[in-house]
Amino acid sequence: MQLEINQITIRKAILEDVPTIFYVIQESFKKYCENSGLEEPPDALRETVDDIRKDILTKQVLVAVLDGKIVGTLRYQILADQTVYLTRFGVLPSFHRAGIGQSLMNEVDDQLIKAGVNRIFLYTAAKNKDLVRFYYGRGFYVESTNTDRGYLRALMVKELKAKQNLTPNAQIL
């Protein structure tokens, strides 16, 4: 599928985005289930608009906007050990392979490097080849797997190199 994309804007979600984020999560995670061979729906399909509202107030929730329409979203939380747990990464299926997910992840990388974060981790269905391949292409690797949610999940990790603040007299070798 090839789409002509003028400009993707990544921004922080606001409370008015909640219904659209709910729709994006529902549609993208239905496709996730289908592509992953899941029989039981993941937690993302059980969340409510109130859950999303709470996350907007307590976590970092980003949306990808194309031509005035929210077409992708993700959430992350910076933990005490300067690692980040990334969740609810979804793009409307009609916009898969159009650079939306890559744009969201690029923005997250930029924000987290500036914040001094050293690792991002997330879980994904280990049998979802396209998604695992996407994460590998973004610098993630599989650290471990488990079946605690009733299906084989991969814990994927990405090491970040935080930008170092150089003192005015520092020399770069």
Mean pLDDT: 89
What global shape is seen?
A: globular
Q: How is the quaternary structure best described?
A: single chain
Write the H/E string, N to C: EHHEEEHEHEE
Low-confidence stretches: 1-5, 164-173
By secondary-structure content and strand pairing, the structural class works out as alpha+beta
What is the number of E strands? 7
**The CATH top-level class label:** Alpha Beta
Distance between the termini: 46 Å
Tally of alpha and pi helices = 4
**What is the CATH fold-level name?**
Aminopeptidase
Spatial sequence of strands, sheet with the most strands: 1-2-3-4-5-7-6
Give a quick account of the main beta sheet: strands, pairing sense, barrel closure: 7 strands, mixed
Reconstruct the topology from this structure.
Blueprint: E1 8-12, H1 18-36, H2 49-58, E2 60-66, E3 69-78, E4 83-91, H3 100-114, E5 119-125, H4 129-137, E6 141-146, E7 153-159
Helix pairs in contact: 1-2
Give an overview of the whole structure:
- The chain is an alpha+beta fold.
- It has a single domain (8-159), classed as Gcn5-related N-acetyltransferase (GNAT) (Aminopeptidase).
- Helices cover 31% and strands 29% of the residues.
- The protein is built from four helices and seven strands.
- It has helices spanning 18-36, 49-58, 100-114, 129-137; strands at residues 8-12, 60-66, 69-78, 83-91, 119-125, 141-146, 153-159.
- The chain has a seven-stranded mixed β-sheet with strand order 1-2-3-4-5-7-6, with helices on both faces.
- Helix 1 packs across helix 2.
- The longest helix has 19 residues, at 18-36.
